[in-house]
Amino acid sequence: MKRAFNLLLLILAGLHTLRAAPQPCTVKEAIELSDSALNQAEPRVITGLLTYYEPSHRMAFLQDRTASIYLQIRDSQPVAAGDWVEVTGVVDPGINGRNLRGLKPETSPIIRRLGPGTWQPAVPANAADIVSGTVSSIWSSVEGRIAEVDVIGDRVRLTLKDQPILSLIHI
C-alpha cells in the first residue's frame, strides 16, 4: 500500500499539466510582470471588456480600467466584441509587447462571457499615437480627412491626409 501511494505521488509530481490556481490581476499588472515572473508561466485571470474579437484573423483585445492587452486567439470562442469577460491565460513576452496566450503554448486563452459590457468613451488619438504604439490596443478614436482607401482581401487600409498609414480595419 505504501509503495502504491509513493508511486502515485511520483506520477503526480511528474505531470506537467498541474499548475497553480490562476491569479487574478489587472491588465497593467500583467504587462508589468518581471521577466522572472514571466518565466514561471503562472496562469492569470483578468476581467474586462473585449474591445475587439476576430478569431478568423487570430486577433482580440481586452481592456480593463488600467490598460489593454492583445490576446493570442487560436480558435473561436462563444464571445463577441462588447462582452464583459473573464480571460484566463499565461502572460507571454510577445514580439511587440506582452500578450495573453493559452495555458499551453499554441492555445487560446480561455475567454468566459460574464455579460454585456459597457463601452467607455474612446481615447482620442492621432495617427502618430497609433503608429508609435502610445495607444496600442486601447479603444481609441482618430479623426482626419481620408486621402486614400485600399481594399486588401477582407481589409480596408485608410491613409489620412498628411498622416502616415493607419492600421488595417476590418469591414
Structure at a glance:
The chain has four helices and twelve strands.
- Low-pLDDT residue intervals, each spanning 5 or more residues: 5-18, 167-171
Q: Which value, in Å, is the CA radius of gyration?
A: 20 Å
Count of helical regions? 4
Q: Could you give a short account of the major beta sheet?
A: 5 strands, mixed, barrel
Shape annotation? globular
The main sheet orders its strands as: 2-3-4-6-5
Q: What is the ordering of alpha helices and beta strands?
A: HEHHEEEEEEEHEEEE
Instruction: Assign the structural class, choosing from mainly alpha, mainly beta, alpha/beta, alpha+beta, or little secondary structure.
Output: alpha+beta
Layout of SSEs?
Layout: H1 2-14, E1 23-24, H2 27-31, H3 35-39, E2 43-54, E3 59-63, E4 68-72, E5 83-92, E6 99-101, E7 110-116, E8 123-125, H4 127-132, E9 140-142, E10 146-152, E11 155-160, E12 165-170
Parallel strand pairs: 1-2, 4-6, 8-9
Antiparallel strand pairs: 2-3, 2-5, 3-4, 5-6, 5-7, 10-11, 11-12
Describe the overall structure.
The protein has 171 residues and is an alpha+beta fold. Helices cover 17% and strands 40% of the residues. It has four helices and twelve strands, in the order H-E-H-H-E-E-E-E-E-E-E-H-E-E-E-E. It has a five-stranded mixed β-barrel. The model is unreliable at 5-18 and 167-171 (pLDDT under 50).
